[in-house]
Design goal:
The chain is of the alpha/beta class and 314 residues long. It is built from 12 helices and 17 strands. The strands form 2 sheets. Strands 1, 2, 3, 4, 5, 6, 7, 8, 9, 10 and 11 form an 11-stranded mixed sheet that branches. Strands 12-13-14-15-17-16 form a 6-stranded mixed sheet, sandwiched between helices. α5 crosses α6 and α5 packs across α7.
Amino acid sequence: MRRDMLEREVRDVLARADFMVSEPHGLRSVSFDFVARREGLIVVARCVQNLCAVDGDSAREMKVLASTLGGSPLVVATHGPAGKLEDGVVHSRFGVPLMTVASVSDMFLEGVPPYVFAGPGGLYVRIDPKELAKARDAKFSIGELAEAAGVSRRAIQMYEAGMGAMLEAAMRLEKYLGREIILPVDPFSASRSESVEERPVREVGGLRGEVFDSLGKLGCRVLQTVHCPFDALTKERENIYFTGIVADPSKLGEKGMAAFNVAKIAGGQSVVFTRNPPTKKNACGSAVVGREELERVRDPAELKRLVRERGGAR
């Protein structure tokens, strides 16, 4: 399946599952394809044919973006180094959860979560430690369970402590006990709990440097992006601005649209800063602010008011 076809299919699945999905940005070499939101769940998604297409830098940027938005990153792929990926299995690529489109459909449309995750050496599942402990306390010894599962006594003790089990061993154990002990996998749990360290702000010159410096003086935290359709995420307390920087006026519409498409789904405002005084105050939904105007802004409240006045519907 071609990458563009895969993206359309994933978009369709999420839309049918009542997600709001940002529009295609049409840009290459970016860390994500779209942002989707359903109630409190925000997903920063990327679709690739082979999971190897996701490198460490783009995965890290996905995680930083998702963490800033209070969401989770997700890669949807069809193949890996060993061939076609199995449905119902959660893989991981540089700490970003990765699944097939069928797995995404099962989880969000059918309400059937994945139960298997890939790890070093094979496929694993999570065993309910309470159910296992109950079964053992009732009539089974550690030795009996270890023999039935084909693992060591130490492994049974580690299962009770919450360690993942090889799929085959867990299935043998479940059959022997005559009860369901395998738990579903939450593909987003690890990314929600992971603390993503932000890299130091790169030294930049020109218009970008001037804009970032002015925003910093207002008390804003600027998270520069490289593989995104916008140039930075600007945070000031609870306010998030999807920030574009445009020196070439012909690029204003493209940058404004890309930032607005994400902002309206993820929650936040979009703004594009220009070198010269803007001839229009809104570009495809994004507020447009000139560099000199930004320098005259006195405090974060004034910046918020300016962006809200000029931003909005296309």
